[in-house]
Structure formats: C-alpha cells, structure tokens
Amino acid sequence: MISFKQLPLEAKAAVAAGVVFFSMMLSRSYLAEKLDLRMRHWVLRLQMALFANTLMLMGSLHVWKSTVTMFTRSSAANSFCFMLWKIAVFMFLALAHSSFFTLLFLVAEEPYFFSLAAYTCLGAYIILIFFLFTLGSVEQAYKFLAGRGAKAGTGNKSRTAMKPILAVMLTLALTVVGLLNASQPPTVHSVEIPVHKLPSTMNNLKVVLLSDIHLGPTVGKTKLAMIVRMVKALKPDLTVIVGDLTDAEAEIIRPAVEPLGELDSPLGTYFVTGNHEYYTSDVSNWFELLKSFHIQPLHNENVKIVSPKSTNDWFCLAGVDDIEADVLRYSGHGMDLKKALRGCSSERAIVLLAHQPIAAKWALQERPDINLILSGHTHGGQMFPLNAGAYLLNPFFVGLYKVGQNTFVYVSPGTMYFGIPMRLGSRAEITEIILRSP
Fold it and tell me: Measuring CA to CA, which residue among 222, 185, 240 is closest to residue 375?
C-alpha cells in the first residue's frame, strides 16, 4: 500500500483539498450551534479560501513544471535571466494564491494595490491553466493521430517547449485585454420590455437595474461614485439593485458606500440580497446602512409602485432573499416567494427582484403569473474561460428572455466584477429598462 509520503505532490494537494472540504461539511453540522453567526461565517470563508488554495496548488505545480522545470536542462538554465524568470513565476503563483485571503484582511474604502495585483494574477492564472491544458491536449492528440506517441525526436522536444511559451504569450495578451475592458465605465444598455397589465399611465416608465457591484478588495468608492453619476444622468423613475452589492462587512466598508446616498429616483431605490451579502454574515447591518441612504431592502416583501400620473394605477414590486441564505442556514433569511408576493394579485402587473437566475426559474414554476423578473449573478461569465461554466450552470445566462406568453426575465451581466479586475467575452453594464404598457 502506498503511503502518503510516496504520493506525488499533485495527489497530496488533492488529498489536502478533500480534507479541507470535509472540514467545511463538519463545520456546518457541528459548529452551527457553538459559534455565533459572524464567527461561524468567518471560519467558513477561511475554509473556502484554504479549499480554493489547495485546489489551485495542483494547477500551480503543473504551471511550475511547464514553465520552469521543463527548461532546467537547457543551456540557459544557469543564466541570470532564467533566475529572474523563476522568481517571476514564483511571485506570480504566490500572488494568485493570496488573492482569496484579501477578502478577509485587505478591504477598505479604496482597493489596495496588493489586492488588485493578487486578483489580476488570479485571472491570469485561470487563463494560463486553460491554455496549458488545451495545448497539452492538442499535443497529445497530434502524437496519437500521427502515430508518434513512442518517439521523442528533436521535433517533439521543440514542440513541447513551444507549448508553455505560447500559453504564456496568449495569457499575457488576454490579461491586458481583460484589464483594459474592465477598466472602462459600464456600458449603458437600453432595453424595452412589454409588461402585461402595466397601466397605460405607467407606459415608458424607466427602471435602472444595477447588479453585482461587489464592493470589496478590488472595487471601492471611486468606482461606485462613477456608477451613481451615470445612473443619475439617466434620470430613472425607479432604481433597483439585485444583489451582490458587497463582499465586506458594513462597518469596514461604510465610507465606500456613501455615494449611494445620492441616488434620488422619484419612485424609490430598492435592494435585494445576493449570495455574497450572506457571505459577509452582516446582512442586518447592511439593511440598516442602506436604509440610512434611503434605499429600501425587500426582504421577502413587496411594495406598490404607484403611477406619478394616477394614484389608482400601480404595479407590485417584490423582492426575495437569495437562495444561498438557505444553504448557509442564515437565520431569518431564505427565499420565501409566498411571503414576498403576499397581497400581489394577478390582476396587477408583478415585477420580481431575484438575484440568481435559478431563483427566477423556481419563482416562475410556483407563480407563472409574474410578469417580469430582474436578476444578475452570472456576470455574463465575466471572463474567458469561465463563460462556458456560467452558461451551463444557469437557466438564464445574460440578457432578455421570454418565458411563456406574458413573462420576461432579464439577467444583468453585472455592473462591476467580482475580485478579478478583468472582463473577457463580457462587458459591465448599467441597464436602462423601459417598461411598455400593452
């Protein structure tokens, strides 16, 4: 029987990841009653960071072997430039691994340079792993099809050496493109949506949709102030924020949130939680902070949005807690559609705010009379190659969907980004929704 010491490093990393994951499951069961909410979720976030790092360790070992170890027998292995290269690769991997811990220790009014560098390296790490795997698979397929799997000629060695070089070049190019794309202000996307049973006096009502701002290690007050200025320039009748506003506790990041106090939509500004609000374990304090800025959380509840032209005309705006609250056993929270729609008659138009598209799907299965659901969460995949996973995991990915005869779902690609300050294959968006009366 092979002992743990005899296992290759990649296998040891996999075992460590399994141990951390198992400890997370045990923590949910056995620590739930022994630790207060904030400490319990802090421990969970630490475990998640450790789990991500142990998983990444397998990829990091592959990166090191592909970009450093492979060239140790070359003529340049003893050169000063190669020494600098080894240091650069080590620092790159160290920064990528440290990114998850910045959520716990490096959050302030404006992002720290270290956090920006760490998350940039994480994004580049994901791209590099993808290209190393893809090019390696192509190389193996070529060898198999060419019938040269057992041969190791000079040509094969040359192609093998080119694989990491090409992967690094592609990673550098896409990282620069992704950083430039994410550094641009969000695009303003205008969409007209017919809303069944919307009163004629509310035709052309303008709703601005914000989602996934992720105030935290890489998004701070400056970017939020820019978003608020852009929203005010659109002069919306109503503004809604559909979750993942933050990744930090309210007290820590309060100064960064102040620009939200300048939102002044005539029919109000409303907010529902996303999964990341529950990761902060500070939802109650966030609700109080948002209320101080005249932003009303919809905690499984609804409000009447009354027409500026007639007090007899209105539609029901409802909001549900994010479904992650149930997974995390967050006391007093969790998606409760019945409670959220209490008093919302099918005789009036119903607009629902639900952070995750899967919640939108569940809501329509229970209440197909909902006319419009506004969601976020997917970020449009945010960056290549994560786009494919986000597409496959969500029933609605990004943009406008028609469900049945009288229902629409709109999924925002996000107004900023989570952590990694990059976007590839997606664009940050402020959505201007024009509601049309049938």
Answer: 240
3-state secondary structure of 5: helix
pLDDT at 17 over 70: no
Query: Quick one: 389 exposed, middle or buried, by C-beta within 10 A (0-12, 13-18, 19+)?
Result: exposed
Q: Report whether pLDDT(150) > 70.
A: no
> Alpha helix locations (H) across 258-378?
275-279, 283-292, 324-327, 337-340, 357-366
* Local structure of residue 185 (DSSP, 8 states): P
Tell me: do 314 and 430 sit in the same domain. yes
Residues 198 and 311 in one domain: yes
Report the pLDDT value the prediction gives residue 231, as an integer from 0 to 100: 97
CA distance 240 to 352: 11
CA dihedral 163, 169, 174, 180 (to 10 degrees): 170
Residues 226 and 261 in one domain: yes
Element (H, E) at 400: strand 399-403
Are residues 287 and 333 located together in one domain of the fold?
yes
**Residue 71 has what pLDDT?**
77
Q: What is the DSSP letter of 382?
A: S
* pLDDT for the residue numbered 157: 57
What's the pLDDT score for residue 155?
54
Query: How many domains, the chain?
Result: 2
> What confidence score (pLDDT) does residue 24 get?
62
Are both 196 and 76 inside the same structural domain? no
Please state, in angstroms and rounded to a whole number, the distance separating the CA atoms of residues 388 and 123. 16
Do 239 and 177 sit in the same domain of this protein? Answer: no
Asked if pLDDT for residue 58 goes beyond 90, the answer is: no
Q: Do 235 and 365 sit in the same domain of this protein?
A: yes
Please give the structure tokens belonging to residue 285: 């304090």
Give the residue numbers spanning the domain of 23.
Answer: 4-149+156-182
Q: What is the DSSP letter of 313?
A: -
386 and 271 in a common domain: yes
Nearest Cα to Cα of residue 117 among 127, 131, 128, 106: 106
Q: Which two tokens stand for residue 323?
A: 């479904």
| pLDDT, tens digit, 9 for 90 and up, residues 235-287 | 999 999 999 999 999 999 999 999 999 999 999 999 999 999 998 888 999 99
Look at residue 1 in the predicted model and tell me its pLDDT: 47
Beta bridge partners of 194: 436
Query: What is the pTM for the complete model shown?
Result: 0.88
